[in-house]
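Support request, please re-run this one:
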Amino acid sequence: MSHISVIVGNPKPASRTRQIAEELAARIAAETGAHLHPTVDLIDHSADLFRWPAPELDAIAERLRTSAIAVIATPTYKASYTGLLKSFLDRYPARGLAGVVAVPVFTTASEEHALAVEFTLRPLLVELGASVPTRGLAFPTPRFDRRAAVLDEWFETEGPLLARAARVAEVAA
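Re-run finished. Output below.
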């Protein structure tokens, strides 16, 4: 059975970034039949980010590494992802996420930051070996109350690509 991991790198617990990531992951699960792992809000594990070993964080990293699909979400900070997320992803070696289909998600204050997800988080996920078959979701937080429509729009074009990539990854595994 394939699984979906949701990793949220927002310094605010229970953030809008987390809500967007969870809603997107639920749609992906409905489309692919994959099961959802519990969401990981990295702020809840910040005390362990620079500890090696850190058994609880190591278990989370392993769960992500063995997931079929990963939704990796962060707010936009200085036109990039948060240090919180970077610190977690630094736990992986090059190609450490090989075989994982990743969906990068940014919450942005304005549409002007829409390309940040493509120019910052996508290259990092690819460096880690993840497959990133869709465009990232740059979710404008001013449209939070209309998030179903934003997710519908993204999923209409990207959902089929994601489902296809998940099937290929599952066959390869």
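The radius of gyration is 15 Å. The chain has a mean pLDDT of 93.
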